[in-house]
Amino acid sequence: MKPLRVAILGVTGAVGQEFLALIGERKFPFSELKLLASGRSAGKKVKFQGKDYSIEEARADSFKDVDLVLSSAGGSISKKLAPEAVKAGALVVDNTSAFRMDPEVPLVIPEINPEDIAKHKGIIANPNCSTIIMLVPLFPIHRLAKIKRIVAATYQAASGAGAQAMAELDRQSREILEGKKPTKEVFPHQIAFNLFSHNSAIADGGYCEEEIKMMKETKKIFHAPDIQVVATTVRVPVFRAHSEALFVELEKKVTLDEIYQALHKGDGVRVVDDRDNNYFPMPIEATGRDEVLVGRIREDHSVANGICLFVSGDQLRKGAALNAIQIAEIWAKSR
Q: I need a surface site. Which of 5, 51, 73, 231 has the fewest CB within 10 A?
């Protein structure tokens, strides 16, 4: 794979920092590396692989001589700058919601629909973190017996709201343990020792943006417009791994043995299902892992052909930066 001239847009954020870590871990080939952020961070130094890099302010003219942009700087910035990067000749793998439902933009999870990468017109969208962590373990089941309906309840980590939200969880925990009143700056409610409905905007129908993303993105990624998805998304006091309880209705009856076999063979999945020891996926064990953990696998007797699962995955890795890097790796090999 030929080394690429890479730009990271939003490098100072939690996902941007994870991009850097994964480029190093996966030995992603680059000949040049440009670090972009807001004007507030311009001029700051970042040490990477023994070299000091200066952060530059992200501007419309920042993408000259760049092959690949890994973007995680917020939807409004992506809408403004991603087209400029494409005009300059770069591929943009965008981690925001800006382009996910654009019919001209592929929405890709490499374990599921890598063939869609070739359909890009300069931008490839990274799905929502909750969608990724849900669909990676469900896809092997979907191939085995087509999924008709998914009911999801999420337990989402602070990392999904960024580095400052993780810091708020840490700070509030310390404040409470010291007998102080917790201070709120990022989340609308106390996150330490608490949980609350996901802090995205509520639409007219009563669903929040996070829930709507999971519903719509699943249809696009699976190429299954008829699949039914409903979700309830919740913030919990966990640092960086999302968990989800999934209730799935299949088109036909399959055995639990067949489900286990499909999951064991599934890409990006690790089965953690020890009933004897009551040992199942946990966010502390999903943190830092590339795979999505899946367990609590059992029949749902309340519906025909129903299966229940519990999954946990690192929101910053597979839920964000790793998925984007995997897309870039596939694209780079095909150039």
A: 51
Q: Which of 120, 129, 142, 198 is catalytic?
A: 129
The structure's pTM equals: 0.96
For 4-127+320-334, CATH number?
Answer: 3.40.50.720
Question: 94-134, pLDDT tens digit by residue?
Answer: 999 999 999 999 999 999 999 999 999 999 999 999 999 99
Which of the residues 120, 189, 242, 308 is marked catalytic?
Answer: 242
CATH superfamily of 131-315: Dihydrodipicolinate Reductase; domain 2 (3.30.360.10)
Band the pLDDT of 1: cuts 50, 70, 90. Answer: confident
Contact 155, 284 (CB under 8 A): no
CATH 3.40.50.720 spans which residues of the chain?
A: 4-127+320-334
CB neighbours of residue 205 within 10 Å: 7
